[in-house]
Write a structure and sequence with these properties.
The protein contains 22 helices and eleven strands. With 600 residues, it is α+β, with helices and mostly antiparallel strands. It has a domain of 397 residues: Cytochrome p450, CATH 1.10.630. It has a four-stranded mixed sheet with strand order 3-4-9-6, with helices on one face. The protein has a three-stranded antiparallel sheet with strand order 5-11-10. The chain binds protoporphyrin IX containing FE (HEM). Protoporphyrin IX containing FE (HEM) binds next to helix 17 and helix 21.
């Protein structure tokens, strides 16, 4: 028998006889090796079984547990485009425990959203999303079925209809005028103002659509981490990125006083009219108690998001709540929902008190539209549905981040192409003149301006991978078998820059949409098929109005390090295609527009 002195009493150090130590180490290695081979063999066997149903799209070799998560890099759409070059326009990935397929060609995207539109009409169920989005019941996250059809139809009819859009446009124009007025005021003292475009635009779009950053956080956070490459990235980098991404903008132009709560305050007005009186110009400066409470709930929720959704792809982690994030998130969601419920009750009381007298204000509030529907169809529009629709994380996500993001990219492109600004100004001067401000009805007549918008959406589609779809039946794409339950990612970024389809794909050429060279080519920044963006018409009108007004009223120039005339176009991290560095620019009111601007 070998004597093993595990604890040397004299020295107090652990001691193990050498031959045994070597044997144990060898044994340990053997066990690890055998376990690894066993997992690999099982994994292969499962893959092979799937193969037997049909030929799966090609893809890289997966490792157990992580699948291909370790291969994905930031920004994800670029990383997937690189993989597409290697494995083709349709390839498979294993994202932790989930199978995914990535489509990167116009033809195959068309095939997915025409022939197989119904098959891919669902969304993957992700635990984090479920927690944040009322069990995954909001429009953008809901699985395909009667519930999604109901809320999508209701939103299209009552919140995003042409009639409703008509009543939103004056409000949007008013916000644009306010923005121009402030920028002019800032520029007046020094002959030009340095502005951070995204902050301006985000304020604008949030106040316009009356929805919160909450929208963006939930949809995109889960997606981002869904596709984040490692657990580490999600827990640390992902979290930091999320915090950067979804924090309300606090950086201020030098000329302004702090208004961090401006957008929330304005959103509250659109959703529920929480302020009893608005003094026209200064209405944004003071927050209602409701807006304040909402802001506080966001402040708690936002930092938790990035850390939480690693569970989505590694089910083992769902069993543990190592840092207590899940519990904290559940508590924050509870607080948020209790607040929403109180808000609905308050609005209901306000409407009752207002009955007969406040017709106009009734029409303005989104909550009131839904509460009046509840009166006629209480079953269809119960409080839960109202909450889902009004505060849906996705219904107006486009309305905030996407519209502001697209405008920011468009302005960056324009700053790098001053000749395009001149052309657009000439077009606006010719069609609109210099005696009034451009309005939403002018936009359809301004071809070059629309070319700018389209080109910005082509080069920088703010949801470059759309929102993930999921197949609900087996189907065949590009000749490959796609099993039911597969996540579908469509890389619009790669599709819009495919050199086999687009001439000079990386070049900014608004003219291509005027000279017919883009005719028939697939441009799908809003997706395609039944899950495509219901806010497309509103977004296009808004983008035209916002960019058109900025171009009409101001001359633009680059600032600081980019004064040589080149704006850095590096993409940041996040699934809604942020810029790496927020765009700053110098604006100077155009002489020919001064009279109009002064009267705003
Ligand atoms: C530049 C602006 C916008 C862009 C680029 C954009 C893009 C998109 C994209 C790519 C999708 C996913 C489509 C898919 O998965 O196939 C989407 C979904 C959605 N968008 Fe937008 N969007 C914008 C503005 C808006 C606006 C203004 C609204 C509402 C006011 C809106 C509301 C929605 C909703 C509710 C969904 C989910 C649809 C569903 O799952 O049924 N979006 N958007």
């Amino acid at each position: 028998m070998v004597a093993v002195d595990f604890f040397d009493q004299g020295s107090g150090e652990v001691g193990v006889s050498e031959p045994l130590c070597n044997m144990e180490t060898a044994y340990l290695y053997l066990v690890v090796l055998l376990s690894f081979l066993f997992v690999l063999a099982t994994h292969r066997l499962i893959s092979h079984r799937r193969h037997s149903k049909g030929k799966l799209p090609p893809g890289p070799l997966a490792v157990p547990v992580l699948g291909h998560l370790h291969l994905l890099e930031k920004p994800l759409h670029r990383s997937l485009a690189r993989l597409a070059k290697r494995y083709g326009p349709v390839f498979s990935l294993r994202l932790g425990s989930r199978d995914a397929v990535v489509v990167s060609s116009a033809d195959l995207a068309r095939e997915c959203f025409t022939v197989h539109d119904l098959t891919f009409a669902s969304r993957p169920h992700l635990p984090t999303m479920a927690l944040m989005t009322y069990g995954g019941t909001t429009i953008g996250n809901s699985v395909y079925g009667p519930h999604w059809r109901h809320i999508r139809r209701a939103a299209a009819e009552h919140l995003l209809s042409a009639r409703r859009m008509g009543s939103m446009l004056p409000a949007i124009s008013a916000e644009v005028r306010t923005m121009v007025r402030r920028m002019h005021r800032a520029a007046a003292t020094s002959g030009g103002a340095r502005v951070e475009l995204k902050r301006r635009l985000l304020e604008l779009s949030i106040s316009r659509h009356g929805q919160a950053e909450l929208t963006v956080q939930c949809s995109c956070a889960a997606l981002a981490v869904l596709l984040c490459r490692t657990i580490d990235l999600a827990a640390a980098g992902g979290k930091a990125a999320m915090q950067r991404r979804f924090r309300f903008p606090r950086r201020l132009d030098s000329d302004e006083t702090a208004r961090p709560a401006l957008s929330i305050s304005a959103l509250m007005e659109t959703v529920a009219q929480t302020k009893t009186s608005r003094a026209a110009d200064d209405a944004d400066t003071d927050m209602s108690p409701e807006a304040q409470e909402f802001k506080e709930s966001l402040d708690v929720l936002i930092p938790l998001i990035g850390a939480a959704n690693t569970w989505d792809f590694v089910p083992l982690l769902q069993r543990f709540d190592v840092l207590g994030v899940k519990n904290k998130m559940a508590a924050a969601v509870c607080t948020r929902d209790a607040f929403f419920k109180r808000l609905i009750d308050k609005e209901r009381r306000r409407l009752k008190d207002d009955d007969g007298g406040g017709g106009e204000s009734k029409k303005m509030s989104m909550l009131s539209v839904l509460l009046s529907l509840q009166e006629s169809e209480p079953e269809k529009y119960n409080d839960d549905i109202i909450m889902i629709m009004c505060f849906s994380p996705s219904i107006f996500s486009g309305g905030t981040e996407t519209t502001a993001g697209t405008s920011e990219w468009a302005m960056a492109l324009l700053l790098n192409h001053p000749e395009a600004i001149k052309k657009a100004q000439a077009e606006i001067d010719a069609f609109v003149g210099t005696s009034r401000l451009l309005n939403a009805d002018d936009v359809p007549r301004l071809g070059y301006l629309q070319g700018i918008v389209n080109e910005a959406l082509r080069l920088y589609p703010v949801l470059p991978l759309l929102i993930p779809h999921e197949s609900t039946a087996d189907c065949t794409v590009g000749g490959y078998h796609i099993p039911s339950g597969t996540i579908l990612l469509v890389n619009t970024y790669a599709i819009h820059r495919d050199p086999a389809v687009w001439a000079h794909p990386a070049a900014f050429k608004p003219e291509r949409f005027l000279d017919g060279s883009a005719k028939g080519l697939l441009l799908m920044p809003f997706g395609m098929g039944r899950r495509s963006c219901p806010g497309e018409a509103l977004a296009l009108r808004t983008l035209g109005l916002v960019l058109g007004t900025l171009i009409q009223c101001f001359d633009w120039d680059t600032v600081g390090a980019s004064a040589a005339g080149v704006v850095d176009m590096t993409e940041g991290v996040g699934l809604s295609l942020p810029r790496a560095v927020p765009l700053e620019a110098m604006c100077k009111p155009r002489q020919v527009m001064l009279d109009v601007i002064r009267k705003l």
